[in-house]
Backbone:
């Protein structure tokens, strides 16, 4: 799917496919350096993080493992309910592992603060976070996010894994939707 498949549903592109690729390459280099000689478990948060995880993992030289967790706090709306549910738990045991949570977006920060706490309680050697997008509300939550793709303003975004009512995840860029789509 691309901009031309969106009719007039696309308002604007905020981050292009090329910008995403370039930034992921930089983040992967940092992660390779930081985890050199250590075992690394990437934890992708379904479904939004599928694209970041797939592209970041392929930029890494580190032989990292990948595991997945599904949590949901948004449902079909555009604001977080704050109630996080585990829909699918990890297969891996986190005891003494170096864990890197991979996210598409940190918005209110509610999902991640709950998730980081949950994973930390499982006895890992370390837990860090990599997100493609961080939004300004996240500053109000006490979160330590080590790897950040882009800081974007407080607008609802879609693409590169991010959905509106489960659609637009398969756009290769990140953008906003025209107001008529929400009505
Ligand atoms: O910082 P927050 O305000 O908590 O929002 C961020 C979370 O919300 C989205 O997931 P969602 O629950 O929509 O599930 P999805 O990944 O399947 O779209 C997104 O992928 C993050 O996990
Ligand atoms: O801006 C957003 N877009 C899509 N999903 C989201 N989940 C939290 N914030 C967003
Ligand atoms: Mg969502």
Residues:
């Amino acid at each position: 799917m691309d901009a031309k498949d969106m009719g007039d549903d696309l308002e604007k592109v905020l981050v292009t496919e090329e910008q995403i690729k370039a930034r992921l390459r930089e983040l992967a280099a940092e992660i390779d350096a930081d985890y050199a000689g250590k075992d690394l478990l990437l934890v992708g948060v379904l479904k939004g993080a599928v694209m970041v995880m797939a592209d970041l993992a392929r930029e890494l030289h580190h032989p990292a493992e990948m595991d997945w967790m599904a949590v949901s706090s948004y449902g079909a709306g555009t604001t977080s309910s704050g109630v996080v549910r585990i829909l699918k738990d990890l297969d891996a045991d986190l005891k003494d592992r170096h864990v890197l949570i991979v996210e598409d977006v940190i918005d209110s920060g509610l999902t991640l603060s709950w998730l980081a706490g949950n994973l930390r309680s499982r006895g890992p050697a370390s837990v860090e976070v990599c997100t493609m997008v961080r939004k300004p509300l996240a500053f109000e939550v006490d979160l330590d996010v080590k790897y950040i793709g882009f800081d974007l303003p407080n607008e609802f975004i879609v693409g590169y894994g991010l959905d509106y009512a489960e659609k637009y995840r398969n756009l290769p860029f990140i953008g906003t939707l025209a107001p008529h789509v929400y009505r």
Notes: The two ends are 22 Å apart (CA to CA). The chain has a mean pLDDT of 94. The pocket of magnesium ion (ligand 3) is lined by residues 48, 74, 163 (CB under 6 Å).
